[in-house]
């Protein structure tokens, strides 16, 4: 019998329960994983609140976990008990000591990547990969704007973009967060509570605007972000930490210079196994090179996941945070 954080209804952190949950034996095409570390991500909050509906309730939260294979089901030939593995592309169920995972959604974990590091970096890092290489091909000479640049995804995007040769502008809620991201490659920090980020971006870019905006904040930043783009620039809205973006008159895209707009998801970019493995390998490579460093700032017992959610929602976290079974 294992333990898991499960919800029986959607709502605030108080709906999360620490319960006995038997994952069962792996069926055909499945693998049983014993977790060593679990990732904490904003999508977990969206699932808990019902913003992103889960397939059914009760449900175990969590998209990201790293650990060891304990058993494999019929037809599974790529995995053996004892193999190191990480899963970060669904389905939900990672807030557990043990879980069943479709074998084709698991990624082999290199020996040089620790379990805690893997749990802290896979979902966020593969998100950064599709943001920088899929939604818009960031290259030497580009200038980008990253909202919440000290967060889990933002801190990786800053480092990876600098590695690619881009100039990085970031927004922050505190001087402490700005200092963290500056050390990670953000050349132009903007404290949005004290400064108008649209005006600062225009000043930094000599009135031209940025090539691309990466916005995981949503409602509070979306429309002003459009004003930060150069003509033919790209708006990437990949999250909604402040709430859903209101309905959009697409005429605004023409008004601001024939802009491009996308609302991507990791699942769409890693739907095929070869795409999943390509995203993972590119991430492993920049981490091996030292171009991207994974900064784990907080570790919570899995049983205290509700406290972790409260901290994440309140903006009290920087870098990555993980849950430990």
UniProtKB/TrEMBL annotation:
Domain of life: Bacteria
Keywords: NADP, Oxidoreductase
Lineage of the species this protein comes from: Bacteria, Pseudomonadati, Thermodesulfobacteriota, Desulfobacteria, Desulfobacterales
Residues annotated as domain Enoyl reductase (ER): 11-323
Molecular function terms, GO-annotated: mRNA 3'-UTR AU-rich region binding; NADPH binding; quinone reductase (NADPH) activity; zinc ion binding
CDD domains: QOR2
Organism: Desulfatitalea alkaliphila
NCBIfam families: PRK10754.1
Name this polypeptide is given: Quinone oxidoreductase
PANTHER family on file: QUINONE OXIDOREDUCTASE PIG3-RELATED, QUINONE OXIDOREDUCTASE-RELATED
Pfam families: ADH_N, ADH_zinc_N
Keyword Transferase: no
Gene Ontology cellular component list: cytosol
């Amino acid at each position: 019998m294992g333990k898991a954080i499960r919800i029986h209804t959607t709502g605030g952190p108080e709906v999360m329960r620490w319960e006995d949950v038997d994952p069962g034996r792996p069926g055909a095409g499945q693998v049983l994983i014993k977790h060593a570390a679990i990732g904490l991500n904003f999508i977990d909050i969206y699932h808990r609140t019902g913003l992103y509906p889960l397939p059914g309730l009760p449900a175990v939260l969590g998209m990201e976990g790293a650990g060891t294979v304990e058993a494999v089901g019929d037809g599974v030939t790529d995995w053996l008990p004892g193999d190191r593995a990480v899963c970060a592309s669904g389905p939900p169920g990672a807030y557990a000591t043990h879980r069943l995972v479709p074998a084709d959604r698991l990624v082999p974990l290199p020996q040089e990547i620790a379990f805690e590091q893997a749990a802290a970096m896979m979902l966020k890092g593969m998100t950064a990969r599709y943001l920088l290489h899929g939604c818009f091909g960031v290259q030497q000479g580009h200038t980008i704007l990253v909202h919440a640049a000290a967060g889990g995804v933002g801190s990786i995007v800053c480092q990876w973009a600098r590695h690619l040769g881009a100039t990085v502008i970031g927004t922050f809620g505190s001087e402490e967060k700005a200092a963290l991201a500056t050390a990670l490659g953000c050349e132009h920090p903007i404290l949005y509570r004290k400064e108008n980020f649209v005006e600062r971006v225009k000043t930094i870019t000599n009135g031209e605007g940025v090539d691309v905006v990466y916005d995981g904040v949503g409602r509070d930043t979306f429309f002003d972000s459009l004003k930060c783009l150069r003509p033919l620039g790209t708006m990437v809205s990949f999250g909604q930490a402040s709430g859903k973006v209101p309905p959009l008159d697409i005429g605004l895209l023409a008004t601001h210079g024939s802009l491009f707009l996308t609302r991507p998801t990791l699942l769409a970019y890693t739907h095929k196994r070869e795409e999943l493995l390509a995203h993972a390998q590119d991430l492993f490579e920049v981490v091996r090179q030292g171009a991207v460093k994974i900064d784990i700032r907080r570790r919570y017992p899995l049983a205290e996941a509700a406290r972790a959610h409260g901290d994440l929602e309140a903006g009290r976290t920087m870098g990555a945070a993980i849950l430990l079974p």
